Amino acid sequence: MNTIKDLQKKARELKQERQSKLDEVVAKAKADVLMTPSERAEHVASWRKEYTRRYAPQFAAIKEAAAAVARETQRQAAKARPQFDPNNPTDLVRTEQAWRNVVLPQLEKGRSLKAALRNADADAVLGAERFAPAWMQANLPGQGDSGLAGMQIEVHKTPGRNGGKLVGAHREVDTSAVTRAVAGRFAELAGPEGAAAIASAITLDSVMPAFDRYIDALDNGNGSGLDTAIGLELALSQGAGGDEPDAGEDAA
């Protein structure tokens, strides 16, 4: 992820450059004895808005550069892994049989998807990619609960009143572990270059949302700068992990 780190550094330097120019405006305003405090504050606010406008295209260019890296990495990863043709009856039958005969029995015994795919061939992995998300949604703990036990309660703010109203929604299972487990096994089945592309693509899936939030925080102050920086660092360090248990990791 050197390129993403380089773009992160470039964005940070861009913010520092913009802040330096604004600091000059502040210093000159403070030195102008003819300005009243309100005039000084208005003058600085006007220049802050102007510098934000001037630098916005450069921050946008950094985000697009990162998106281009992600697109190219995803393209290389797609070339390195087996593909599934949903219009090919042979592919449909072969991958479904591999799912039912190889992967599903292990999941039903409580093994994690990552463990179930440990020695799987391409058809079994493609089958897991097709069917595992729905299986996890239906079978992971809590999905069979009814009433409040099977729902998550959120507070939706209501304009014009304090607090908000409670809204219930059926609990959704995070099935992103399927993507990581599938990609991880494909990386093991690929050659060195293909494995590197697949691993990078896994990382970028986690990194890109955090990177965009980080750039937005530097650009226009959306969100906490410190929080978004920490979020990006966590994504960069953990994005390629993909080893958290998804259905109860076994000891094998």
Question: Secondary-structure map with pairings?
Answer:
Blueprint: H1 2-31, H2 37-80, H3 89-108, H4 113-116, H5 122-139, E1 151-157, E2 164-170, H6 176-189, H7 192-220, H8 225-238
Antiparallel strand pairs: 1-2
Helix pairs in contact: 1-2, 1-7, 2-7, 3-5, 5-6, 6-7, 7-8
- What is the rounded Rg? 25 Å
- Please tally the helical runs, counting DSSP H or I stretches of 4 or more residues: 8
Major sheet: arrangement of strands = 1-2
Largest sheet: 2 strands, antiparallel
Q: Tally of extended strands?
A: 2
Instruction: Return the structural class.
Output: mainly alpha
- Give the mean pLDDT: 83
Please indicate the percent range of residues in DSSP E strands (runs of 2 or more): 5-15%
Give the low-pLDDT segments: 143-159, 161-170, 240-252
Helix content: 55-70%
Termini gap: 31 Å
Shape assignment: elongated
Q: What is the N-to-C succession of helices and strands?
A: HHHHHEEHHH
